[in-house]
Amino acid sequence: MESYTPGTFDLTDWGFASVDADVLRAHLGTDGYQNAAHVSDPDVDELLAQGVATADLDDRHAIYSELQQWNNDNVAIVPLYVPAFITASNEQILGLTFDAYGWPLFYTATTTIVEG
Question: Whole-model pTM?
Answer without folding.
Answer: 0.70
